[in-house]
Structures are given as structure tokens and as C-alpha cells.
Amino acid sequence: MGRDKGRKLAPNWEGPFRINEKFTGGVYKLETLQG
Fold first, then answer.
1. What is the pTM for the complete model shown?
2. What is the DSSP letter of 16?
3. pLDDT tens digits for 3-32?
4. How remote is the C-alpha of 35 from its chain's centroid?
5. Contact 17/5 with Cβ under 8 angstroms?
6. In this structure, what are the phi and psi dihedrals at residue 16, rounded to the nearest 5 degrees?
């Protein structure tokens, strides 16, 4: 996941994301909407 290291008031995360795969323990593999 791309963490935004920019300004203080900028959003913390890039997104949106789509769930690509679900693993045990509540872990998800994410992908961007562009793939």
C-alpha cells in the first residue's frame, strides 16, 4: 500500500483498493482499481 509521506493534512493512504484475495486471520491482498 502506498503511504502518502506528503503534507500533514494530506490523506494518509492512496486508494481506493479492491480486495484481490482473502487469507486466514483477517488478512487481505489488495489491488488498485487499475489492476
1. 0.53
2. -
3. 556 667 877 778 899 999 999 999 999 999
4. 12
5. no
6. -80, 165
